[in-house]
């Protein structure tokens, strides 16, 4: 069977490496390397690299690598189209195009940096101090603000949040984040909606904020390839899938990672994260493998158990959550939190590495 996996992030890699290798597997990626996306804020802060060649991660597996940007999916013709015009046909498609920072607000694309611009941002910040404003009080915004404040003490760092920073944490978790932001000198402006980025800084619901550099860390958006192809998607463009990650509208297409809106029993729609994106991808590969062997695919089982936030290299919060992802008053703060978060990031990447030799080694909480 010809299986194409599009997107080589955490989800695409997990799925591609877990598929039975008797299939002809093609992995299509916009870049020739895997990016440890959960470390992009570290890259901006001076980490030398977060990339690993795909050729290294797939060596000896028989997976055929194609570098190119997917521009179209034609489910009726069972093919994908790349930006350079190449067309590739499939029997089964695994769609793993992930997500990216939504840059739709006025001026963001022109004047702001995002996590995806981490390397460029690092170069800019090493070029001399000034006022740096991070927009977004979610996990990514807080991780960026703290990491950058710690790495670049000659910059005055501000954080602009629509509500309060990381509202999804417990009271103890939030208190620790607030304390760390204060310790690192991050000026937090809460309850303020950023409306536009200008050459001078930021326009907000409460007036102008002057900044030399703006880092935009609003919500994530997904590619519109699935929607344009006619796949059933939700209001954010994430594909609707069944309990085996198969598109509810197109059974030859499985959708994994951030690109999929997975209904998790007792926890609602999947959160865009590696924490569930990798289990989703592994489960999809298991379903494809089972069906190709004429067996029934099992329904997805998963339970959230922690949320991790890094607060620079020496601080962090590990927040225990119930299976429905709601926080409880149990947190591991400080150095220990930073250490566990580091282990979690290493586990995610190590799982991708290990799957080259041990395809079914990745395990997750159920
Ligand atoms: C700074 C930061 C910190 C984070 N920290 C955490 C954390 O601590 N824990 C956690 O669980 N999650 C975290 N996340 C979220 C996590 O990174 C994502 O949820 C995860 O990467 C999603 O995996 P994915 O494989 O679905 O997508 P991605 O990792 O985004 O991979 C998608 C891949 O598809 C490729 N691609 C995209 N479009 C095309 C195209 N048209 N053609 C070909 N290839 C394409 C991309 O180049 C990429 O390789 C963080 C994110 C950021 C930005």
UniProtKB/TrEMBL annotation:
Domain of life: Bacteria
InterPro entries cross-referenced by the UniProt entry: FAD/NAD-bd_sf (IPR036188), FAD/NAD-binding_dom (IPR023753), NADH-Q_oxidoreductase (IPR051169)
Keywords: FAD, Flavoprotein, Oxidoreductase
GO molecular function terms listed in the Swiss-Prot or TrEMBL record: oxidoreductase activity
Annotated protein name in UniProt: NAD(P)/FAD-dependent oxidoreductase
Entry EC no(s): 1.6.5.-
Organism: Nonomuraea typhae
Family stated for the protein in its record: Belongs to the NADH dehydrogenase family.
Cross-referenced Pfam families: Pyr_redox_2
TM segment ranges: none
């Amino acid at each position: 069977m010809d299986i194409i996996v599009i997107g080589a992030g955490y989800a695409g890699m997990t799925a591609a490496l877990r598929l039975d290798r008797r299939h002809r597997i093609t992995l299509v990626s916009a870049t020739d390397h895997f990016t440890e996306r959960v470390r992009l804020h570290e890259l901006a802060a001076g980490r030398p690299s977060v990339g690993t060649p795909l050729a290294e991660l797939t060596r000896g597996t028989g997976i055929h690598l194609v570098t190119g940007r997917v521009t179209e999916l034609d489910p009726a013709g069972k093919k994908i189209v790349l930006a350079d015009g190449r067309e590739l046909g499939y029997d089964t498609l695994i769609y793993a195009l992930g997500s990216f920072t939504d840059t739709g607000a006025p001026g963001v694309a022109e004047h702001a940096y995002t996590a995806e611009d981490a390397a460029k941002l690092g170069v800019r910040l090493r070029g001399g101090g000034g006022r740096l404003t991070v927009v977004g009080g979610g996990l990514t915004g807080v991780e960026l603000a703290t990491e950058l404040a710690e790495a670049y003490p000659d910059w005055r760092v501000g954080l602009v949040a629509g509500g309060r920073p990381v509202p999804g944490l417990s009271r103890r978790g939030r208190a620790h984040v607030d304390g760390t932001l204060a310790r690192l000198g991050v000026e937090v402006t809460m309850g303020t909606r950023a409306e536009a980025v200008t050459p001078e800084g930021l326009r907000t619901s409460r007036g102008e904020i002057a900044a030399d550099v703006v880092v935009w860390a609003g919500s994530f958006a997904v590619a519109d390839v699935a929607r344009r192809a006619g796949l059933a998607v939700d209001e954010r463009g994430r594909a609707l899938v069944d309990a085996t990650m198969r598109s509810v509208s197109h059974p030859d297409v499985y959708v994994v990672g951030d690109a999929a809106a997975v209904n998790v029993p007792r926890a609602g729609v999947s959160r865009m994260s590696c924490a569930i994106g990798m289990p989703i991808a592994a489960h999809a590969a298991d379903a494809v493998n089972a069906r190709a062997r004429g067996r029934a695919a099992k329904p997805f089982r998963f339970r959230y158990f922690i949320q991790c936030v890094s607060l620079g290299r020496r601080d962090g919060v590990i927040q225990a959550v119930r299976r429905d992802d709601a926080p409880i008053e149990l947190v591991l703060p400080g150095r220990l939190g930073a250490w566990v978060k580091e282990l979690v990031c290493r586990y995610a990447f190590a799982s991708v590495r290990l799957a080259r030799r041990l395809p079914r080694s990745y395990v997750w909480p159920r």
